[in-house]
Amino acid sequence: MLEASIAFVLIFVIGCMSLVGVFFLSIKEKTLDKILFYLVAFATGTIISTAVFDLIPESIHGFEELVSQGFFIEEDIFLVFIFVMSGFITFFVLERFIYWFHGHAHKEEKEKFVCHDTSGKQVEIEQESGKGRNIALLNLVGDCLHNLLDGIIIMVSFLQNIGLGIIVTIAVFIHELPQEIGDFGILLYGGLTKKKALLFNFMSAMVAMLGGAIALGLSSIIGSFNTFFLGFSAGGFIYIGAVELMPELLKEKNLKRSILQSIIFFAGIATVFILLRILPHV
């Protein structure tokens, strides 16, 4: 199947972004912060608009087709939004209880490591008594689960239609880039060498391929899987955009930078809107 093949290729390409961390080691902190400043603003716009303009409407459209085939009645439309909420809650639980040390982390100072926790607050941690190893392990576990869901989301989107798959892949790509920089930094903090950090981060990213395979298998067995997982994906995207990324934008107090940030945010929304008009959705 062409759609599945394209999905697997793009999942692999996004997984290769896990190697990007090594290229940022020599970049000054201020320069890296500027790069992340633009990336986070653009990612916020793309990921929220992808959920609202594309994933939820596609899920509703898929549900209407299931109704026409006699699997559901129109009054069951609330099931779509139950899955949207389920996606939101799942990502909340994933972040709160497993993926709690997620964010960008990029500065090492003597025996201390400076990073940003899930609330965006700058944290300075001393590397001692195995604490770094525990954080690295938790990060790897959470990253594997996160990448598994990403793989499922991308595959389901492509199985729905190629246009949707491309838009979702772009949203995942933009969101994953700053995240992979942070993951690499956390593994270094955990005591891993650069080579081992790159290897483990890459292996974690490749779990997305398993997610793609799971989605492909379930879609052929359960006809309604794609429809409802699109709603689930929308909930996850809304959580990432509104809870993880948006608070970072709201911290900016400088008026000029806030205006620039807003423009980039709206550019992200406009990008998805334009792609929806020019890409085929059949």
Structural account:
It is globular, with a radius of gyration of 19 Å. The protein is mainly alpha-helical and 282 residues long. Helix 4 runs parallel beside helix 6 (194-205). The longest helix is centred in the first third of the chain and has 40 residues, at 29-68. Residues 101-131 have low confidence and may be disordered. It has one domain (2-278). The chain has helices spanning 2-15, 29-68, 78-98, 131-160, 162-189, 194-205, 207-221, 225-250, 255-278; strands at 105-109, 112-116, 122-126. Helix content is 74%, strand content 5%. The protein has a 3-stranded antiparallel sheet.
Radius of gyration over C-alpha positions, nearest whole angstrom: 19 Å
Count of alpha/pi helices: 9
> H/E series, N to C?
HHHEEEHHHHHH
Oligomer: single chain
- Beta content comes to 5-15%
Low-confidence stretches: 101-131
Overall structural class, as computed from helix and strand content, comes to mainly alpha
Q: Please list the strands of the largest sheet in the order they lie side by side.
A: 1-2-3
